[in-house]
């Protein structure tokens, strides 16, 4: 179904790998910002960004958490950078059944970068003193939010409930709303 077009501001974060020094401030602030209540704790395992670190080769690569993938992918990539071979899946953004990355440690629920919804500037961008993370904004014409989006949301929730159980999903939503109330 097609709806009306409207202008939307699309925010992206450009990652300048050469500038990243592996300090992990982005992981720390992301986890603190999303803690419930906000800033009550910090645990990089809860961050929606993860920095792949190879200090001996001076290689640091920030990777943002993307969409949850309900099934493992059939093909995987191996990267060799400066002679160091990285695990398959090392640079993947998805939380998926075959690894623990980008999953909430307590509940196992998938984590996804939400661009620090409500903030003018994402916290990781603000805290990256090396300027390795740069916020970019552009205007795009998109479909009005409508039935299609609702359908996608329902399919997403259904697959999460199937995978993790309805109670875990409900607990997580409750935690998120507590965190939002703490923020307001
Ligand atoms: S805060 Fe910036 S420099 Fe530090 S690890 Fe994150 S992206 Fe790299
Ligand atoms: S934009 Fe916000 S949610 Fe996304 S990784 Fe950065 S701090 Fe975390």
Which ligands, by name, code or SMILES, are bound?
iron/sulfur cluster
Beta-strand percent range: 15-25%
Major sheet: size, sense and barrel closure? 2 strands, antiparallel
Number of domains: 1
Proportion of helical residues: 25-40%
- What is the N-to-C succession of helices and strands? EHEEEEHEHH
By secondary-structure content and strand pairing, the structural class works out as alpha+beta
What is the radius of gyration computed over CA atoms, rounded to a whole number of angstroms? Answer: 18 Å
Number of H- or I-type helical stretches: 4
Lateral arrangement of strands in the main beta sheet? 1-6
What best-fitting shape do the alpha-carbon axes yield? globular
User: What is the averaged pLDDT score?
Assistant: 87
**Parts with pLDDT < 50 across at least 5 consecutive residues:** none
Please tally the β strands and state the result.
Answer: 6
> How many angstroms separate the termini?
36 Å
Structure description:
By secondary structure, the chain is an alpha+beta fold. It has one domain (5-63, 102-183). The protein has four helices and six strands. The chain has helices spanning 25-33, 123-127, 147-164, 166-183; strands at residues 5-15, 49-54, 59-64, 79-81, 84-86, 133-143. It has a two-stranded antiparallel ribbon with strand order 1-6. The protein has a two-stranded antiparallel sheet with strand order 2-3. Strands 4-5 form a two-stranded antiparallel sheet. Helix 3 crosses helix 4. The radius of gyration is 18 Å and the shape is globular. The relative contact order is 0.23. The structure holds iron/sulfur cluster (2 copies).
